[in-house]
Amino acid sequence: MPTRKFAIARQLGGKRVITNKGEELGRISDIQFDELTGALEYMLIEPSPESKLARDLPRENDLIIVPYKALFAVSDVAVVDESLLSD
To answer: How far apart are the C-alpha atoms of 75 and 6, rounded to whole Å?
Structure first.
């Protein structure tokens, strides 16, 4: 299990994040895991200064918190479902 979560973290690290409506949120800076289960909980995103949506999302220090369950596609960019960002 640890190998798999580190592989996912490497795949996501530094990727640009956009919403399913096309707004760029920023870049993935870190990923948080549940220490007991190893489940991915949320991503910490370095916000894009132009993103109006990012201004309204919860933060940890200067990074916005995006629940992992909002992530639904990853290729050149990570795509998140905007309706799941504030859950």
So the answer is: 17
Q: Are 18 and 74 in contact (CB under 8 A)?
A: no
Would you say the pTM of this structure is higher than 0.85? no
- Cβ(32)–Cβ(42) under 8 Å? yes
In the chain, where the domains are located:
2-81
State the fold for domain 2-81: SH3 type barrels. (2.30.30)
By the 8 A CB rule, do 26 and 46 touch? yes
- In angstroms, rounded to a whole number, what is the distance separating the alpha carbons of residues 79 and 8? 15
The first and second tokens of residue 33, run together, are 């895991």
Contacts of 73 (CB under 8 A, 6+ apart): 79
**Cβ-contact 16, 9 below 8 angstroms:** no
- What tens digit of pLDDT does each residue of 34-45 get? 888 878 889 999
